[in-house]
Automatic annotation (TrEMBL):
InterPro entries: Ferritin-like_SF (IPR009078), RNR-like (IPR012348). It comes from Thiomonas delicata (Thiomonas cuprina). It comes from the Bacteria. This is Putative Ferritin/ribonucleotide reductase. GO terms for molecular function: oxidoreductase activity. SUPFAM superfamilies: Ferritin-like (SSF47240). CDD domains: Ferritin_like.
Amino acid sequence: MHDNPRPADLRWHLEDLDFTAIDTVRLRKRDDLFLLVCSASFIESGTDTYTRNLVDYFSGDAEVGDWLSQHWEPEELQHGLALKTYIEHVWPDFDWDGAYADFFTEYSKLCTTDELEPTRGQEMVARCIVEMGTTTYYQALNAVCDEPVLRDLTWRIRTDEVQHYKHFYHYFLKYREQEGLHRPKVIAALWRRVAELRQSDADIALRHAAAWRFRGRAQPPSIDAVSKQIYELMSTQYPIELAVRMALKPLLLGARMQRWAERPLAAVARRVLLN
């Protein structure tokens, strides 16, 4: 992980957060919040590896390449650094660097160009789904926690992720025209990425965060029990309507058709994803 992301026109800085104001004693035994924050910090901190693949994939497109390397990557790395700093203030005995090294050994094997979509337009669709996932994750985390500094941090990150979504969507529209990308291929890209949401890098991050958090305990909880606990916590506040709205947008259905589709799809998604 880079402790000092490359300079960029960041919307906020680490110094804007008052980590000394955290009521650490009250939070220290909250395994659920720890795992949610720690797993997110791992994923955000590995962004530079993934960025290289995207920059290579979009080689020749200076607009996309410059934005990825000069804005998206530094902002994502700042998310990771801020979340790591939060961990260090609340759970100072946790060996974040050691746990992250284990996580990255496994995670980096997934960061290959083979995992990218077959066309640039379809990859932008996939990027929109990823940003939808992060936006809704941080919104849910913001809602389930009651610690002011973490709420401030998660909302800042959530706001960044919305902006990232807008950029990827803008680039999707450009490549849609260039490639003549019709709706069936957009749907295929959407489906592939949505299908991975519950079997993704988040699972790897959670597994390694839990393994290091509970090592040495006489009766550590199983990863299934841990996953169930935090999944149930997050599902109580997960903004499923927002997720569906963001996922449908690349289909360019038109305002009336999108509104017609959102409610039944949200109901289905709530049953499938949140149960």
